[in-house]
Amino acid sequence: MIFGKKKKEPVHVQTAVSDGYRGGLCYIGGPGSTVCERRLYRSLREKIPVVDAAIGKLVRLTGTFSIRCDDEDLQKDINDFLKRVRVNGNQQGANSFLATYLDQLLTYGTAVGEVIPDRSGRRIAALYNASLEDVELAADKGPFDVDVMIRDPQGESHKVRYPELILCSTIMNQPGRVYGTSVLKGLPFVGDMLMKIFNAVGTNWDRVGNVRFAVSYKPGENDRSFTKERASQIAAEWSKAMRSREPRDFVTVGDVSIKVIGAENQIPDCEIPVRMLLQQIIAKLSIPPFLLGLSWSTTERMSVQQADILTSELDFYRGQLEGCIRKICDLYLRFRGSRADYSIHWDCVNLQDEVELAKARLYNARAERLETGSEGGSNEG
């Protein structure tokens, strides 16, 4: 028992490997969350800024929360705890923990964290975001009994010592699998095509911006015996002229022609294919394009509809986080010896939501007033 009176040894971070061990493909047993797949998703975020920006905005737009309960003193204490609790090595506040937690959840489909008690085992000292490279999920006893495993430096897997302190969430699970599905699933193919276009554009502009020249020398009938010497002299003088930081003239005699390599070709227009690929990315991540700085033609009504869809997405992600929040709060109350009821209150996404809610309340009040008036008139009649 963790909460008994018997003195226990201090609980350290269970989901961190002390010697920096990182497993290979055989380390993660889940077919939906392999090491290569996670590296692929990390690479996708690193190489395509739009993907990384979209996930970052989804995390930030999810917003903050507070706890409400009937006991005002307990409500104040638990909210103060959530604001001041230590997170990882250099962060503070449960919102910082949840931001990293949700970022991991969206990127890989699975997120693992841990509640760290203090040395006395009587209160929560910190929250820790575990790396998926250090843990694995196993459902050996059945589909409803998922264990979090950790591998020791000798390479053997074993269950964590205090599973009640582990926080684990998954999204969009495939049937029969314990690992979740990343929101980036399906994008590596699109991302690969987009990177090919970007690399081709960079190569073409490198050739156009840093112009290459073709210098041709055609010796005359009397110069054929000195062709090699003349060609070497022309090449040396041309190289000096090109390396000079100041403009220099190139003067020569004979039949010498200078042409720009590739001057006849044009860089293909990539706006349409890039836009088509970006549309696939935007559709997958369910975020309005104007939030990513993409100025596509759109009407005001369409923008409002896109904002409504984004709000629904954020509500879904908030619901995924509430299980993690409740486990943290339940542990905090257990350490205090309390069983008080509480509710999680999320802040509105922005002021526009407050305005829309106020308009909805106004319209409902007007409709109720008209209905009440019509019922009163019919009763008098």
Indicate the proportion of strand residues: 5-15%
Q: Can you list the strand order of the major beta sheet?
A: 3-2-5-4-9
What overall form do the CA principal axes indicate? elongated
Helix content: 40-55%
Low-confidence stretches: 1-10, 18-33
How many DSSP H or I helices? 9
- Kindly report the average pLDDT value: 79
Cα-atom Rg, whole angstroms?
A: 32 Å
Strand segment count? 12
Spatial gap, N to C terminus:
73 Å
| Helix-and-strand structural type | alpha+beta
Main beta-sheet annotation: 5 strands, mixed
What are the secondary-structure elements, in order, as H or E? HHEHEEHEEEEEEHEHEHHEH
Task: Outline the structure in words.
The protein has 381 residues and is an alpha+beta fold. It has a domain at 1-184 and 300-376. The protein is 46% helix and 14% strand. It contains nine helices and twelve strands. It has helices at 35-47, 49-61, 72-84, 94-108, 187-209, 227-243, 271-285, 300-336, 351-380; strands spanning 65-68, 86-87, 91-92, 110-117, 124-129, 135-138, 147-151, 157-159, 166-170, 213-218, 255-260, 343-346. The strands form four sheets. It has a five-stranded mixed β-sheet with strand order 3-2-5-4-9. A hairpin with a 6-residue loop joins β4 and β5. α1 packs across α5 (187-209) and α5 packs antiparallel against α7 (271-285). It is elongated.
